[in-house]
Design brief:
about 325 residues, mainly alpha, two-stranded antiparallel sheet, about 75% helix, transmembrane, MetI-like_sf, membrane, BPD_transp_1_N
Length: about 325
């Protein structure tokens, strides 16, 4: 097990390093004159050249990458260097602040959105999947199939717009204000308002994901329900509820955990649309504004963050599924 964990950790770090190098090189191609972004308006060529030399932007990209990883030139007193302690992801040319500080400021909203959506869709998908397996080929199974395929077919942005239109705008015209139009309230400030402001964004993401998970849960449950130990449990008089939730669901969890980990990792990068629709000031919104404004240190920082979340999630999923497999723990 130790050897397996070390191999997985090595693969994860290699993946992260490749993503970092590729992102760094691509931003150097896409943003050719970063000194002009950093310089004040109407700056002359001498000023631009001074900024370029100070930040070593005139050096080859691989030397700039070296400075990015190790201790590079401090910018306006902010320490640089990803591998330095504390790690620094660069300096935002547009916002004149360290990228690490910007991400730490935005990440509570994105984490609240992603983790809340995962909890909601996993709970509903497990419930609907077990229900569909227990009522196989009945109107309940067919009805849940229709719900699944509908959720999969409608784009996330359209689901978000429809939810905002009907549950905020239309209800507001009748004086019912159950849901806010957008915004984010920190959990530590007011838990009730935190959940109220995030309920529609959670639903937007969950409706798109429930379909996949519900069908996966149903398919694996039906496979497990044909096993000998399930027939033995039924022969001993174990209730159908315990057979499905305690025996069959536990055995079918590995593929569900794997898919859930991958979806959570993808969600950290895909929450951009939902954040834009509901006005959540998260990492996705920060990344979009940086990409449009040419603030490439922020683009690199947010990309590295998304890649790190993906790598850590898949690593955790691999280890957990290995531990749940009795043949894999040696």
């Amino acid at each position: 097990m130790l050897k397996y964990t070390l191999n997985q950790a090595s693969r994860a770090l290699t993946t992260l390093l490749i993503v970092l190098v590729a992102t760094f090189a691509l931003t150097r191609v896409a943003y050719r004159d970063p000194a002009a972004v950093l310089a004040p308006r109407n700056a002359d060529q001498q000023t631009l050249d001074g900024i370029t030399r100070a930040l070593r932007l005139d050096e080859p990209w691989y030397l700039q990458l070296w400075h990015y990883l190790y201790r590079g030139p401090d910018i306006q007193g902010a320490e640089m260097g990803l591998f330095h302690w504390p790690p620094a992801l660069g300096y935002s040319f547009r916002q004149q602040r360290p990228v690490t500080e910007l991400i730490l400021e935005k990440i509570p909203a994105t984490l609240s959105l992603a983790l809340g959506a995962v909890v909601l869709w996993m709970a509903l998908a497990l419930l609907f999947g077990v229900l569909a397996a227990r009522r196989r080929d009945t109107w309940v199974d067919h009805g849940l199939s229709v719900v699944s395929y509908t959720g999969l077919s409608v784009p996330t942005f359209l689901t978000g717009i429809l939810l905002a239109y009907f549950l905020y705008f239309k209800l507001s015209t009748y004086g019912i204000r159950w849901f806010p139009s957008g915004g984010y309230v920190p959990l530590t400030e007011d838990p009730a308002q935190w959940a109220r402001h995030l309920l529609l964004p959670w639903l937007t993401i969950a409706l798109a994901e429930i379909g996949v998970f519900q069908r996966v849960v149903r398919a694996h449950l039906l496979d497990v329900l044909g096993a000998d130990y399930i027939r033995t449990a039924r022969a001993k008089g174990v209730s159908e509820r315990r057979v499905h939730f305690d025996h069959a669901l536990g055995a079918a969890l590995n593929p569900i955990i794997t898919l859930g980990g991958l979806e959570l990792a993808a969600l950290m990068g895909g929450a951009i649309v939902t954040e834009q629709i509901f006005g959540l000031d998260g990492v996705g919104r920060l990344a979009v504004e940086a990409a449009v404004g040419g603030d490439f240190p922020v683009v690199i920082g947010t990309t590295v963050l998304a890649a790190a979340v993906f790598v850590v999630s898949t690593f955790a999923v691999d280890v957990v599924t290995r531990l749940r497999d009795p043949a894999g723990v040696t």
